């Protein structure tokens, strides 16, 4: 709904032959709604420290694309105006242009805030854990990650924890434990577990270490990721996600042929 309104705004402005300066205002409206639509992604970026990178990407890519799109739609509307009007003159910029934009801004912002802030998911990507349930439809649960303060607690889960506890442990140490090398060692040990879900989540735990710490030992991590990629069946997509994340944050090219297809 909000997307339809956003697409209609520049077309209407062009059809009414408003001043091209209105494109600046419409560009700001598009940017505002983009931020709202990515509300939880921004929250995760602030949490994991990647917000600066996200801002840079928005400035050099996202916002320019929006501006080009607004301009194209504006002139599509202008071309359509020849059906009803003659001449090629535009109106001077005035308060009427602001009155035209205001309803679009209010409607799209209200819809976006409702859908993405109040009615959106209450979890972020760091709280997603996969567990070995009996059906694919129930293969994900959403809950806060546990925080382990000591290595003794972690070792207890590794040695005597249930499948569900081990499946979550990789995410927890990858996201929260400050010692990256120990967290990596835990994930690599869990990658040898009998339960496939524990092994796959260990790959995701390694990806979390790459994202939060920016450190991994390639000679130890790469063989494990490639092995799970070959052996995984129903969780193959998760392994690919883990490899892609590791490649991105570590600037590696593990299994690059799988991402060129």
Structure commentary:
With 261 residues, the chain is an all-alpha fold. It has 2 domains: 2-118, no CATH class; 125-259, no CATH class. Helix content is 67%, strand content 2%. The protein contains 11 helices and 2 strands. The protein has helices at 2-15, 22-37, 39-48, 51-80, 95-118, 151-160, 163-176, 180-190, 196-213, 218-231, 236-250, and strands at 128-130, 140-142. Strands 1-2 form a two-stranded antiparallel sheet. The radius of gyration is 24 Å and the shape is elongated. The model is unreliable at 119-142 (pLDDT under 50).
Oligomer status: single chain
- In round numbers, the mean pLDDT is 77
* Largest beta-sheet details: 2 strands, antiparallel
Helical fraction:
55-70%
Number of spatially distinct domains: 2
Give the low-confidence spans: 119-142
Which term fits the overall shape?
A: elongated
> What strand order characterises the main sheet?
1-2
Number of strands: 2
State the helix count: 11
Tell me the Rg in angstroms: 24 Å
Estimated structural class: mainly alpha
Q: What is the end-to-end distance?
A: 33 Å
Order of helices and strands: HHHHHEEHHHHHH
In short:
By secondary structure, the chain is mainly α. The protein has helices at residues 2-15, 22-37, 39-48, 51-80, 95-118, 151-160, 163-176, 180-190, 196-213, 218-231, 236-250; strands at residues 128-130, 140-142.
């Amino acid at each position: 709904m909000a997307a339809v309104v956003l697409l209609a705004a520049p077309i209407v402005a062009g059809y009414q032959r408003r001043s091209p300066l209105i494109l600046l205002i419409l560009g700001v409206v598009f940017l505002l709604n983009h931020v709202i639509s990515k509300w939880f992604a921004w929250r995760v970026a602030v949490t994991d420290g990647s917000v600066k990178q996200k801002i840079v990407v928005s400035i050099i890519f996202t916002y320019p694309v929006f501006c080009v799109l607004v301009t194209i739609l504006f002139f599509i509307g202008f071309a359509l105006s020849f059906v009803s009007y003659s001449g090629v003159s535009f109106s001077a910029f005035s308060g009427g242009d602001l009155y035209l934009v205001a309803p679009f801004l209010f409607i799209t912002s209200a819809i976006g805030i409702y859908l993405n802030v109040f009615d959106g998911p209450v979890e972020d990507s760091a709280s997603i854990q996969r567990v070995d349930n009996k059906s694919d439809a129930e293969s994900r649960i959403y809950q806060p990650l546990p925080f382990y303060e000591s290595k003794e607690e972690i070792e207890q889960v590794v040695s005597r924890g249930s499948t569900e506890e081990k499946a979550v442990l990789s995410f927890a140490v990858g996201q929260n434990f400050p010692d990256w090398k120990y967290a990596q060692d835990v994930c690599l040990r869990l990658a040898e577990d009998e339960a496939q879900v524990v092994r796959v989540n260990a790959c995701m735990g390694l990806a979390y270490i790459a994202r939060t710490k920016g450190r991994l030992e390639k000679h130890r991590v790469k063989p494990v990721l490639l092995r799970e990629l070959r052996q995984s069946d129903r969780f193959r997509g998760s392994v690919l996600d883990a490899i892609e994340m590791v490649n991105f944050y570590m600037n590696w090219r593990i299994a690059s042929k799988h991402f060129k297809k």
